Amino acid sequence: MTTPFHQPLSRREMLRRSGVGFGNLALLGLLAQSGHVLGGGLSPNSLAVRPPMFPARAKRVIFLFMHGGPSHVDTFDYKPLLVRDSGKPLPFAKPRVQFAQTGSLRKSSWEFRPYGQSGAMVSDLFPHVGAMADELCFIKSIHGTNEAHGGALLKLHTGSDTFVRPSMGSWISYGLGTENQNLPSFITINPTLGHGGVANWASAFLPAVHQGTPLGSSGTPIEKATINYLHDPNDNSALQRLQLDLLKQINQSHSAKAGPDNALEARIESFELAFRMQTEAPELMKIDGESEATRKLYGLDDAETAGYGRQCLLARRFAEKGVRFIQCSHAYWDSHDKLTQEHGKLARQVDKPIAGLLQDLKARGLLDDTLVLWGGEFGRTPTVQGNDGRDHNPHAFTMWMAGGGVKRGFSYGHSDDYGFYTVDEKVHVHDLHATMLALLGIEHEQLTYRHAGRDFRLTDVHGHVVREILA
Questions:
Q1: CA 213 to CA 186: how far, in whole Å?
Q2: In terms of domains, do 116 and 213 share one?
Q3: Which long-range contacts (CB under 8 A, 24 or more apart) does 192-195 make?
């Protein structure tokens, strides 16, 4: 017996029944693209642009990460008394927990000079960055909670040094999406594979599409760094499209039977993003079309500066194309010995490229809505380790910001007379994260994700916005 379900429909009846459905399909497609969460198992586009919670000063972040911990008392935190008392014992107690033992006070090997109308004191390690001092907002009272690289890196990147948590880039991606659907919202260039490794750019319990996309790693020459599996070895996009469509159908069939599965939906989205990236990312990573003047600005004409200069130039190109969070990592500033030699070499590698990036962003009108953040996982002690070194110091260190709604030519916070501890206007790493999110138009206490029965956020249960540095 034939049931009504199996009876053929006339053309007129088919159009009558489905007329309203065509409109619904169009509406569902628009809502999915705009990121609205719908019932009935329809997956939203997790990378769709989301409006900020309040007017934003910045649209994106470029994080210039100096892995290993550059010495604040040798770069941007001038301490005249450290010069005067060099060779004398520290006149107050050292921390109860230390990474290693250190001796007496040791002055910097470099002179400090005032730069710009702000008169910011910058050491001779960074003359090019010093020339940009009137664009910078120094925070000289950053402090963390961990003396070891691994814990300190995780704290800076994820807000936790004890548990696996989403990276700050992942949180920003989750909160704001991306302005370019053909690119990831979070790219990390030459990231370290040590000291927390992938956990520093992972999405943890956030949907996988928000994790950082690595371009090379710390051991890869930047000119050879690329996004893994970006090119189809068979060079057959039509076949690849069919394969992805079949995989999507299988996954969606599973979801229909087993119920909503956020991890599976995120995986489907990540496959689709990877496919779309093939159309735009390869050309974006080619810098052959940049002018000779631009190449020189970033130091690409000098073997010493070309590596980090290429990272900074790629960061500008990604920022122009709508990527939300770009990290450029540089290693390895961990100078327990031979600090004069090592810091001198490392600073020469990054000084000109960083200044070039700031100048280029400003000239292109991008600096106003791009937040540039510079710093490491901690600073170094004002007391000497060995003959010419400094130990880890999470109790006081300096980071700076530029653009993106922060005050220009401004300095906030103080460490003590020698630079061992923060003494006033203290800024914890949680406060740094809260302030960064505020500049992006995000209330850090409201950017949450429910996991394992509780609401998580980048700042955990801490963090205050440092409003004094906001322009």
A1: 6
A2: yes
A3: 192/67, 192/153, 192/217, 192/218, 192/329, 192/331, 193/217, 193/218, 193/219, 194/149, 194/150, 194/218, 195/67, 195/149, 195/150, 195/153, 195/377
Cα of 399 vs its chain's centroid, Å? 14
Q: How many helices (H) and strands (E) does the chain have?
A: 11, 17
Mind listing the pLDDT tens digit for each residue in 344-364? 999 999 999 999 999 999 999
What is the C-alpha separation between 330 and 339, in angstroms, rounded? Answer: 16
**φ and ψ at 388, to 5 degrees?**
-155, 65
Longest CA–CA span in the chain (Å) reads 102
Q: How far apart are CA 376 and CA 119, in angstroms?
A: 24
Q: What is the pLDDT of residues 66-84, one digit of tens each?
A: 999 999 999 999 999 999 9
Residue of 322, 409, 430, 414 whose CA lies nearest to 366:
322
The answer on 320 and 194 residing in a single domain is yes
Number of residues written out for the chain:
471
pLDDT less than 50: residues of the chain: 1-6, 14-15, 20, 22, 24-43
What range defines the domain where residue 177 resides? 60-227+285-469
Is residue 129, in this structure, part of any structural domain at all? yes
3-state secondary structure (DSSP) of residue 292: helix
Residue 220: the pLDDT is 83
Q: How many alpha carbons lie under 13 Å from residue 212 in its C-beta half-sphere?
A: 27
> Coil, strand, or helix at residue 423?
strand
Cα Rg, the chain, nearest whole Å: 25
